């Protein structure tokens, strides 16, 4: 397939999805933590964090120079100081970003999200979040009940199996999958590629796909997984793919599209792009560096 | 070698020295992950009791990885001064601990016995020390080193200005570097981790750092933390390289995973001396961290502290300018909590210093560990009290390229003020010339990067 056809398909998938999303956008606005607050302070505006690009240096020698430099890096610079310490505003910005990262790692993907996206939920042998973080080896093994459930509710022998895995950021899964997954499924449909019923795996690592593919006898697994959050964003998701992965698969056999989030590769665009990658994998019976090395 | 000990009515028997060394460790997730950790608190103390009564020759005669099988073991043993070793080989680990902590032992005494100690002996004694023991012992040793300038002099604390950028944008790197300089950060080195590891990109970043250094006549050294093989290409191309960087580990197989071996490090060191731009004699910059062998599955059943000590055995062979420990960077599967990372920082600082190394520390954490800014700041204050030569410095403490948290430019300036420590002497003069510092404190111009424009 040439680049032009690929672009056309991506474009049409995105257009169709935008239309559906516009309709449901209003209904999707979720109530924030405000509903929990006891005293809403009625009419006053809420306190907000200072924007990250504020120059905090007091009486600078050359404010214009600082403004120009400020645009060149997302680093936390030109924040000013009180004594040798950070000012309150930049301190709180850091705390807020770190809190978002911690929440992304420690919170679970919600039941509502799983229901809304028509997934069913299974789990690895990991017991809890602490064990998940300390024992990457256990995050690569499905529990026996989960295997049974996948065989019962999933579909064997389809060409592609999509799995959604919490990984290190539940936030990124909730922020991106609802856009990326439909775009991917629609794109695969355009190519006439069959897709098994997608499901969610709790406490999973990337290599969990190596257990899924042999179980369902599919050609390609597409795995959406939350990336380790940084302070710049906690919403970044990756899509890992492999052709017929199993326990002999190593990392170089996987193809990855990372940095999927609203300020990176937008999820809808990513989903459509993934469909073209999957098509290429099926056509060439390959993934990872083997696929990349093809002309 | 007696591998049995009794605590109250429980008798413990350990399988080997390797098993004993692992079980004597304070709790860390990486030792548990590979199944080496003590199973109960009492077993941990029983192991310490056993270890305290071993003689240094028991450790010498039972290398944790055989001499024949591992070039790191060979390097450590071949570098030992046998006369000094023979004079203390009958000491127990407990006696070694008390000698180190004893009032009569000063830097020279400790650096003398250091030449007779294998890395495993140094690891063993660290396992018998509490946090304050480690700080107390660390404080006795401060080894200075000279590249273009000297860092690690008594009463000084230096910093690496680590102004990384997520796309290696030169203007962004320079902007953030200037911010750090205006806080007094950069006397150890101006050092950038590149996103893309190739000689063209290395040259682009290195030239920008050198331009900055020359334009403002900054008394310091520059480095770009590419793979050592990239830096060797740069040296061959005639690019002015001050410091050659490489991450190192405690086993030959982990080095293979890093794409290095002793021969390559030796060649890089020789090239840096022969072709490099710095005055020297110290021209190498190493980074290490507990758990790196676990993360590449090359630990050979040896615990993280012992492997980290062996890493310092590698480093001291190459007479480095800086050894920086980044134990908090590796992740929760090796070090899980703030307590674990602070313990690791102090152990590593101690073990590095007892190897006679010019040690610094990056008391840091990733966002998927149970550690936060408070742990990181506590680690920094303790390591500064313990006499670390240097820390990192990053805008706001957040590395926007490597996605982890480390000491900020603000922390750097603060810790100097809290403990009355000064920059490297040449660098302090430079800061005074620019009106950034007066009597060891930031002036009103401090923290204003636009003074350079």
TrEMBL record, chain A:
Adenosylcob(III)alamin binds at residues 206, 227. Its main location: other. Residues 32-47 have a biased composition (Low complexity). Pathway: Amine and polyamine degradation; ethanolamine degradation. PANTHER family: ETHANOLAMINE AMMONIA-LYASE LIGHT CHAIN, ETHANOLAMINE AMMONIA-LYASE SMALL SUBUNIT. Catalyzes the deamination of various vicinal amino-alcohols to oxo compounds. Allows this organism to utilize ethanolamine as the sole source of nitrogen and carbon in the presence of external vitamin B12. The basic unit is a heterodimer which dimerizes to form tetramers. The heterotetramers trimerize; 6 large subunits form a core ring with 6 small subunits projecting outwards. This is Ethanolamine ammonia-lyase small subunit. It comes from Marinobacter aromaticivorans. The gene is eutC.
TrEMBL record, chain B:
It catalyses: ethanolamine = acetaldehyde + NH4(+). Pathway: Amine and polyamine degradation; ethanolamine degradation. Binds between the large and small subunits. Substrate binds at residues 160-162, 193, 287. Belongs to the EutB family. The basic unit is a heterodimer which dimerizes to form tetramers. The heterotetramers trimerize; 6 large subunits form a core ring with 6 small subunits projecting outwards. This is Ethanolamine ammonia-lyase large subunit. It comes from Marinobacter aromaticivorans. The gene is eutB.
């Amino acid at each position: 397939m040439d680049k032009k056809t690929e672009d056309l398909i991506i474009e049409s998938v995105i257009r169709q999805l935008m239309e559906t999303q516009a309709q449901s956008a209003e209904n999707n606005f979720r109530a924030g933590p405000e509903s929990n607050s006891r005293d809403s302070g009625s009419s006053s505006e809420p306190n907000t964090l200072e924007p990250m690009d504020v120059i905090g240096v007091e009486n600078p020698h050359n404010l214009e120079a600082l403004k120009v430099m400020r645009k060149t890096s997302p680093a936390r610079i030109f924040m000013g100081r009180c004594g040798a310490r950070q000012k309150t505003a930049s301190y709180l910005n850091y705390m807020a970003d770190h809190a978002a990262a911690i929440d992304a790692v420690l919170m679970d993907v919600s039941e509502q999200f799983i229901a809304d996206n028509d997934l069913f939920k299974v789990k690895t042998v990991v017991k809890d979040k602490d064990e998940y973080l300390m024992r990457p080896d256990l995050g690569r093994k499905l529990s026996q009940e989960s295997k049974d459930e996948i065989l019962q509710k999933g579909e064997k022998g389809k060409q592609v199996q999509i799995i959604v895995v919490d990984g290190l950021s539940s936030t990124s899964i909730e922020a991106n999958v609802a856009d990326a997954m439909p775009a991917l499924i629609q794109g695969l449909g355009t190519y006439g590629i069959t897709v098994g019923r997608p499901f969610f795996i709790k406490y999973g690592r990337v290599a969990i796909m190596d257990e899924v593919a042999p179980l369902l006898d599919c050609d390609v697994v597409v795995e959406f997984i939350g990336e380790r959050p940084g302070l710049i964003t906690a919403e970044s998701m990756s899509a890992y793919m492999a052709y017929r992965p199993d326990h002999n698969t190593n990392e170089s056999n996987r193809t990855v599209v990372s940095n999927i989030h609203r300020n990176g590769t937008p999820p809808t665009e990513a989903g459509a792009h993934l469909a073209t990658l999957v098509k290429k994998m099926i056509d060439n019976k390959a993934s990872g560096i083997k696929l990349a090395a093809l002309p | 070698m007696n591998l049995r000990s009794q605590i109250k009515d429980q008798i413990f028997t350990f399988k080997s020295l390797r098993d004993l060394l692992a079980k004597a460790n304070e709790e860390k997730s990486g030792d548990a992950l590979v199944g080496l950790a003590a199973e109960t608190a009492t077993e941990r103390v029983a192991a310490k009791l056993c270890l305290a009564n071993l003689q240094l020759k028991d450790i010498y005669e039972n290398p944790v990885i055989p001499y024949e099988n591992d070039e790191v073991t060979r390097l450590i043993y071949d570098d030992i001064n046998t006369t000094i070793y023979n004079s203390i080989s009958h000491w127990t680990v407990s006696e070694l601990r008390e000698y180190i902590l004893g009032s009569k032992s000063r830097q020279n005494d400790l650096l003398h016995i250091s030449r007779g100690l294998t890395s495993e002996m140094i690891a063993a004694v660290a396992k018998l020390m509490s946090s304050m023991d480690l700080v107390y012992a660390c404080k006795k040793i401060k080894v200075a080193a000279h590249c273009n300038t000297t860092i690690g002099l008594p009463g000084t604390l230096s910093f690496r200005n680590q102004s990384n950028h997520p796309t290696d944008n030169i203007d962004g790197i320079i902007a953030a570097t200037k911010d750090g300089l205006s806080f007094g950060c950069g006397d150890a080195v101006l050092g950038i981790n590149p996103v893309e590891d190739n000689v063209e990109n290395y040259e682009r970043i290195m030239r920008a750092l050198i331009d900055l250094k020359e334009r403002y006549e900054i008394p310091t050294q520059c480095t770009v933390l590419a793979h050592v093989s990239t830096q060797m290409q740069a040296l061959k191309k005639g690019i002015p390289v001050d410091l050659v960087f490489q991450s190192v580990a405690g086993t030959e197989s982990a080095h293979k995973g890093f794409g290095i071996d002793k021969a390559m490090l030796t060649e890089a060191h020789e090239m840096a001396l022969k072709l490099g731009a710095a005055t020297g004699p110290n021209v190498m910059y190493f980074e290490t961290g507990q758990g790196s062998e676990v993360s590449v599955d090359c630990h050979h059943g040896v615990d993280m502290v012992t492997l980290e000590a062996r890493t310092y055995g590698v480093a001291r062979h190459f007479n480095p300018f800086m050894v920086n420990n980044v134990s908090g960077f590796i992740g929760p599967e090796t070090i899980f909590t703030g307590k674990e990372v602070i313990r690791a920082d102090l152990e590593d600082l101690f073990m590095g210093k007892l190897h006679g190394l010019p040690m610094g520390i990056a008391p840091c954490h990733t966002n998927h560990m149970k550690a936060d800014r408070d742990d990181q700041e506590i680690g920094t204050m303790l390591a500064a009290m313990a006499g670390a030569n240097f820390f990192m410095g990053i805008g706001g403490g957040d590395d926007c390229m490597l996605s982890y948290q480390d000491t900020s430019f603000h922390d750097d300036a603060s810790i100097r003020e809290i403990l009355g420590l000064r920059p490297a002497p040449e660098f302090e003069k430079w800061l005074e010339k620019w009106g950034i510092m007066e009597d060891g404190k930031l002036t009103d111009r401090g923290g204003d990067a636009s003074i350079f424009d």
